[in-house]
Write a structure and sequence with these properties.
alpha/beta, 6-stranded mixed sheet, about 20% helix, about 25% strand
């Protein structure tokens, strides 16, 4: 099959979001990834050498399952995971982006919260070719937000613009 290697993407929710980061860290042949309410390894050195790519993290700041701020430990002998802001900054740094984020136009992602409740934080300046990092924070959003009808269009639009 003819596959455009510049448009191989992975998208995951919760544990699927962790999987998307795992694929990115392991150097899977992807050009962009999206995680909704997921995270990556607590030990960021596991991702050393990961190739640059476009990363979008979407996360509710009231998520009671995968905490927006991250968790230091899940219990004795178990690691934790970094918060949404930290993981996006990691990928910005890995992609050589300037670490002063830009603010994008707010988005409407949660159908039960009024207005455009989601803040956009973007690292896209100075990045190496093929890299950027972006965070859509659903203010007041939980782990499984009731997504607006055009949510998938917004995500695919983001992917297509890379």
């Amino acid at each position: 099959y003819a596959v455009d290697s510049e448009r191989v993407w992975v998208v995951g929710h919760s544990n699927g979001g962790f999987m998307a980061y795992r694929l990115a860290c392991d150097g899977a042949p992807i050009s962009a990834m999206v995680s909704l309410a997921g995270s990556e390894y607590a030990d960021e050195s596991i991702c050393d050498g990961a190739p640059p790519l476009h990363v979008l993290q979407i996360h509710g700041d009231q998520d009671a399952v995968i905490a927006y701020a991250g968790v230091a430990s899940l219990g004795p002998g178990l690691g934790g995971f970094p918060g949404a802001e930290a993981v996006v900054e990691r990928w910005a740094r890995r992609g050589g982006c300037e670490l002063t984020p830009e603010t994008g136009e707010p988005r409407d992602l949660d159908g039960q919260l009024p207005g455009s409740e989601s803040d956009v934080t973007r690292y896209a300046t100075g990045c190496v070719v093929g890299a950027s990092a972006e965070l859509w924070t659903i203010r007041g959003g939980g782990h499984v937000p009731p997504l607006v009808d055009d949510f998938s269009e917004q995500v695919v639009g983001w992917l297509m613009s890379r």
